[in-house]
Write a structure and sequence with these properties.
Family: Belongs to the GPI family.
CATH superfamily of the largest domain: Glucose-6-phosphate isomerase like protein, domain 1
Pathway: Carbohydrate degradation; glycolysis; D-glyceraldehyde 3-phosphate and glycerone phosphate from D-glucose: step 2/4; Carbohydrate biosynthesis; gluconeogenesis
Radius of gyration: 26 Å
Catalytic activity: alpha-D-glucose 6-phosphate = beta-D-fructose 6-phosphate
Strand content: 5-15%
CATH architecture of the largest domain: 3-Layer(aba) Sandwich
Number of domains: 3
Enzyme class: isomerase
CATH topology of the largest domain: Rossmann fold
Structural class: alpha/beta
Strand order of the largest sheet: 1-2-13-12-10-11
Protein name: Glucose-6-phosphate isomerase
Number of strands: 13
Bound molecules: 6-O-phosphono-beta-D-fructofuranose
CATH class of the largest domain: Alpha Beta
Shape: globular
Length: 548
């Protein structure tokens, strides 16, 4: 296992960065009239414009060389073939199998045809969703289900929630889907207040069926059901589960036929395509869920087969590495200009930061380079009136991905044209900035005195030369949303491959869980806390005092 710093392309990129440091992006456009056309790539209904980057042909060919040296092609083939690329857990990583083409019927992994299991689960989901939508599924008083509450956290929550929200225009009227995740009692209490136990069904989504937040909320939901007219015998009419731990779900009161399987070879943050996506399928119907899978599959095929230099996830991945490792960018922003996609940055944040927030190479050696960036963002244009100030004039370099549909689901008045104009103007402003001379002239034109010009102009200077990608699609459909999320999944893998880390485990979250249990025990007992640090002791005291 080699550190990426040992690749010859890495060394060449470090030297090349010195040449590029004084190069302005606008001069790259002037030097190459074909730049906009050249630095554009298409896949699965998406167009990526990556012309507004601090990169020229040499940069891109060195970045491709880096991807090649890191064994990108083999890594991609390894993932698609079911190799145990999650080496610390000795597991395959096969979210791509969940959306494989119907034309493929076999994918043998460790002696099992995983596609047979995937298809059987999809059939089970079809029946379940149809029963809910036709009203055939009835609650304990014979009424049809009107509300479904999905209870889960992390990967068993964010992906489905974000996709269900992204597909709002496709929602079926008959059933409302709600999501509960946090162990903060205010989350579930707020939801339950709106619901009728006779017509509410809970879907408990937990791969392990052992996650504190999910089990606490599932128990709270069952208590609410039992104390509002339901009985233990009727729990199975109002509770279903998605889990790889069937026994625990049965012990909870779930009927076996209402338990949907999960597999070791799907990581939580990559699981929305499995039965973890059941709330999405209930919200928008199985037809749209299949389209979502198909969109993701189109992106998978592109990722698997396209040459690296035309490959969207690879282009975005290597450009990210360029900024993180050669320009010291600490963060990366995602800014969708689409109201329904407003929560997408949170899903990609989880996907990327849980995957690439690592400090060890696959062989356990410490990394020598920075790895995953801080992913953040939110909907445009709202962010323009909040954090875009820092993007334009702050001291940090923040590469941005702008994401926008060309047409709107709600084309009222001039809204969409303004929305789209703002999206383009932000990437333009980041690149071109404003010089001191321009700022001075602007003030003079507005009638400012010389003194005012001297005082204000420096504050109006915007350095520019800040990079961004723009991703466009015709419309936010189930297929385009599926392709978009798959694109980011693969981008994460591309970067993890270059850094030589395992993007598919998450050992870092375990310590907090263990300590959380220990502190919980101290909060509810009279234990001797003197061995703890003084700060934690004082905080425990404060909590205990407030309970009396
Ligand atoms: O936060 C750690 C984690 O294990 C995630 O990877 C996972 O998606 C989440 O907790 C929930 O786990 P489960 O689906 O087992 O409840």
């Amino acid at each position: 296992m080699r550190s990426p710093t040992e690749f010859s392309a890495w060394k060449k990129l470090a030297e090349h960065q010195q040449e590029m440091i004084s190069v302005d992006m606008t001069s790259l456009f002037q030097a190459d009239p074909k730049r906009a056309d050249k630095y554009q790539a298409q896949a699965a209904g998406w167009t990526l414009d990556y012309a507004k980057n601090r990169a020229n042909d040499t940069t891109l060919s060195l970045l491709t060389e880096l991807a090649n040296e890191a064994g990108m092609k083999n890594a991609i083939d390894g993932m698609f073939s079911g190799a145990h690329i999650n080496n610390t857990e000795d597991r395959s990583v096969l979210h791509v199998a969940l959306r494989a083409s119907q034309a493929q019927d076999t994918l043998m992994v460790d002696g099992v045809n995983v596609l047979a299991e995937v298809r059987a689960t999809l059939k089970q989901m079809e029946q379940f969703v149809a029963q809910l939508h036709t009203g055939e599924w009835q609650g304990y008083t014979g009424k049809a289900i009107t509300d479904v509450v999905s209870i889960g956290i992390g990967g068993s929550y964010l992906g489905p929630k974000v996709v269900a929200e992204a597909l709002t225009p496709y929602k079926k009227d008959s059933i409302k889907v709600h999501f509960v995740a946090n162990i903060d009692g205010s989350d579930i209490t707020g939801k339950l207040k709106q619901l009728n136990p006779e017509t509410t069904l809970f879907v408990i989504s937990s791969k392990t069926f052992g996650t504190l937040e999910t089990l606490s909320n599932a128990n709270a939901a069952r208590d609410w059901f039992l104390s509002n007219g339901g009985s233990q015998d009727n729990v199975s009419k109002h509770f279903a589960a998605v889990s790889s731990n069937v026994k625990k779900a049965v012990d909870f009161g779930m009927a076996k036929e209402n338990i949907f399987p999960m597999w070791d070879w799907v990581g939580g943050r990559y699981s929305l395509w499995s039965a973890i996506g059941l709330p999405v399928a209930i919200a928008v119907g199985m037809d749209n869920f299949y389209e979502l899978l198909d969109g993701a599959h189109q992106m998978d095929e592109h990722f698997r087969t396209a040459p690296l230099e035309e490959n969207l996830p690879v282009i975005m991945g290597v450009l990210g590495v360029w900024y993180i490792n050669f320009h010291n960018a600490q963060t990366h922003a995602l800014i969708p200009y689409d109201h329904y996609l407003r929560a997408m940055p949170a899903h990609i944040q989880q996907l990327d930061m849980e995957s690439n927030g690592k400090a060890n190479l696959l062989n356990g050696d410490a990394v020598e380079t920075d790895t995953g960036p801080i992913i953040w963002g939110g909907a445009g244009t709202n962010g323009q009136h909040a954090y875009h100030q820092l993007l334009h004039q702050g001291t940090r370099l923040v590469p941005v991905d702008f994401i926008a549909p060309l047409t709107s689901h709600n084309p009222i008045a001039e809204h969409h044209t303004h929305l789209f104009a703002n999206c383009l103007s932000q990437s333009q402003a980041l690149m071109v900035g404003k010089t001191l001379e321009q700022a001075q002239q602007e003030l003079k034109d507005a009638g400012a005195t010389d003194e005012q010009v001297a005082k204000i102009a420096p504050h109006k200077v915007i350095k520019g030369n800040r990079p961004s990608n723009t991703l466009l699609t015709d419309k936010m459909t189930p297929a385009s949303v599926g392709a978009l999320i798959a694109l980011y999944e693969h981008r994460t893998f591309v970067q993890g491959t270059i850094w030589g880390i395992n993007s598919f485990d998450q050992w870092g979250v375990e310590l907090g869980k263990v300590l959380g249990t220990d502190i919980y025990n101290r909060l509810v007992s009279n234990s001797d806390n003197s061995a703890l640090d003084a700060s934690t002791q004082a905080l425990i005291k404060a909590f205990k005092k407030a309970q009396h």
